[in-house]
Design brief:
There is one protein chain. By secondary structure, this protein is mainly α. Helix content is 68%, strand content 2%. The chain contains 22 helices and four strands. The chain has helices at 18-37, 41-52, 60-84, 87-105, 110-138, 141-171, 177-180, 182-196, 210-227, 242-262, 278-307, 313-318, 321-341, 346-362, 371-386, 389-398, 405-443, 461-466, 471-483, 491-501, 514-517, 532-543; strands at 5-7, 14-16, 202-204, 521-523. The strands form two sheets. The chain has a two-stranded antiparallel sheet. The longest helix has 39 residues, at 405-443. It is globular.
């Protein structure tokens, strides 16, 4: 399968020096922070938001819609970035994110909020994928650990800064500012990226995989609809329900069509031959199960703190700081260790084992527990995740053709986000189902219409605090008893990831940046008058490392 990309012949090679690298890296970090922050910033504000907009039963969709949109957008940005260059897709992603943040803050109904969260995800998916691909473009894999470590720490910071900032804004100017705060930051990030990201653009003669895009988007949506069936208001999985059967059958058909199309088109959205690459397959499966466990856990912990531990909205954000410390510590340390030793397999293995221990420990959550004990629990969880996230991305990027860095990175992340969407939907379905049953027991015996918060759908932390005893204690215990056992559902998933990590093959880290390998750039100090043949030779050398097979390449001197 050819992958013909033509670069503009009238432009010079990009010269990569340390100043250029740090300038681009800074612009990417600012934009990535926006995207990752919005996966968690609504966490602490969630009880207030869904209580005010009357959407407690469907609260998982505020997070699921964002993650689902990210999953759909990722392969598009990855493929188009490889074909046409990453600069303009990146700017489009930032713009979408800013517009959606403005709309989300103005939402007057739960349905409108979910819709704007989906648009946010369409922008956020581009920020995450293109940032990771651009880093691979400008920094060799042998040095990338030093940069991937801070990027992993950034995800850890946002995982906790999001709930903290969300709590402070909810207590202060109001929950709508959890969206509006992105607008000035996003505008600044757009202008920084416009001037800093001087990246090459391409012309491609490959046709767009419209069939793959359509079936991927619809199939992904169908998967999430199935896993969210109960949270959509349906009373369990009644397999005599023709609507449920239609969704199941339609999803299966769409997935089958996607596989059929991807095996036949000239330029597939997600090339299935990538799965012949052992490293890609194993790390993708690890990302899938980790996404199912990681995002599910992070999404509901602030709700537990507010509803069961009696923490205020801002306080619940502060209480998530130990998780940030764990992620930052292990992410940065592992990044530098990988750059120094050139070895990376041990980190996801140890990280997944630690994550399992953290998940098991979280099954002991209970109302009124020691917050120091809670902090220790989430520190262990964060420490495990910090060893995994960026390491598996580095492993994928190091094992594929330099021309497919964006496609491979986005495909790997796509399955992680699918896992996150499915895991969050399933986890919140289990949680809300148990919570509904628990609250019915708490409010049993009250006169009709006398149950506070509409019997549960309108409960907010402030309303719970005002409840008389024994109702208040009953509600607190109902939340804790619904959440803690649900973590047992996540433990087997992460255990599968640990077994897979044991079979991960360690490939020698490349000493060439992606753009250099493709003949689009030279490192400062290299011969300024390098011939086009030298660039093509560099590409050929890089392709010989590709575990999925060589690619035919047509590169013209820029």
């Amino acid at each position: 399968m050819s992958h013909a990309v033509t670069t503009a012949p009238d432009k010079p090679l990009v010269v990569l020096n340390q100043r250029t690298i740090w300038l681009i890296f800074g612009a990417l970090m600012a934009s990535m922070f926006l995207s990752s922050l919005d996966q968690t910033i609504v966490g602490t504000a969630m009880p207030t938001i869904v209580g005010e907009l009357n959407g407690v039963e469907h609260q998982g969709w505020v997070i699921t819609a964002y993650i689902l949109a990210i999953a759909i957008a990722m392969p598009l940005y990855g493929k188009f970035g490889d074909l046409y260059g990453r600069r303009w897709p990146f700017l489009v992603a930032v713009g979408l994110f800013v517009v959606a943040s403005l709309g989300g803050g103005m939402a007057q109904s739960f349905e409108a909020l979910v819709a704007w969260r989906a648009v946010q995800g369409l922008g956020g998916g581009g920020l995450m994928i293109l940032s990771q691909a651009i880093i691979a473009d400008i920094i060799p894999a042998s040095d990338r650990g030093k940069y991937m470590g801070p990027m992993g720490a950034l995800f850890g910071i946002s995982a906790v800064a999001g709930p903290l900032l969300g709590g402070w804004l909810t207590d202060g100017p109001g929950w709508r500012w959890t969206f509006w705060i992105n607008v000035p930051i996003g505008i600044a990030a757009w202008f920084i990226a416009y001037f800093a990201l001087k990246l090459p653009s391409h012309r491609s003669n490959r046709p767009t995989d419209l069939g793959g895009i359509l079936t991927m988007a619809l199939g992904t949506t169908g998967i999430v609809l199935l896993t969210s069936w109960e949270s959509l208001g349906h009373d369990g999985y009644d397999w005599s329900d023709p609507t449920l059967l239609a969704v199941l059958l339609g999803t299966a058909v769409l997935v089958g069509l996607f596989i059929f199309i991807e095996n036949r088109v000239a330029e597939p959205l997600i090339p299935l031959r990538l799965f012949k690459n052992r490293t890609f397959t194993i790390t993708t499966l690890i990302g899938l199960v980790l996404g199912m466990g990681m995002f599910s856990a992070m999404a509901m912990l602030p709700t537990f703190l507010q509803m069961s531990a009696g923490a205020g909205v801002t306080e619940s954000g502060l209480l998530m700081l130990p998780m940030m410390a764990g992620v930052m510590l292990t992410s940065i340390a592992s990044g530098f260790a990988i750059s120094k030793t050139g070895r990376y397999k041990m980190f996801p293995v140890v990280g997944l084992a630690v994550t399992i221990l953290g998940m098991i420990w979280l099954t002991r959550l209970e109302g009124g527990m020691s917050l120091w004990l809670f902090g220790a629990m989430i520190f262990v969880l964060g420490a495990g995740m910090g060893l995994i996230m960026q390491t598996i991305v580095l492993a994928v990027q190091n094992s594929v053709d330099p021309h497919e860095l964006g496609t491979a990175t986005s495909s790997n992340n796509f399955f992680r986000e699918i896992g996150a969407a499915v895991g969050t939907a399933a986890f919140t379905t289990v949680f809300t189902s148990r919570l509904t049953d628990n609250l019915q027991g708490v409010f049993e015996g009250l006169p009709e219409g006398a149950a506070p918060g509409g019997g549960g759908s309108g409960l907010t932390p402030q309303l719970v605090e005002q409840l008389p005893e024994p109702l208040r204690s009953g509600v607190v215990d109902a939340f804790a008893d619904a959440l803690a056992p649900a973590f047992w559902y996540l433990v087997p998933l992460v255990a599968i990831g640990l077994v897979l990590a044991l079979f991960l093959k360690e490939v020698k880290l490349s000493d060439q940046a992606g753009m250099v390998a493709r003949g689009e750039a030279v490192m400062e100090g290299a011969a300024a008058d390098a011939e086009p043949a030298d660039a093509v030779a560099a590409v050929g050398a890089a392709e010989s490392r590709d575990a999925s097979g060589p690619q035919e390449t047509d590169i013209l001197r820029r």
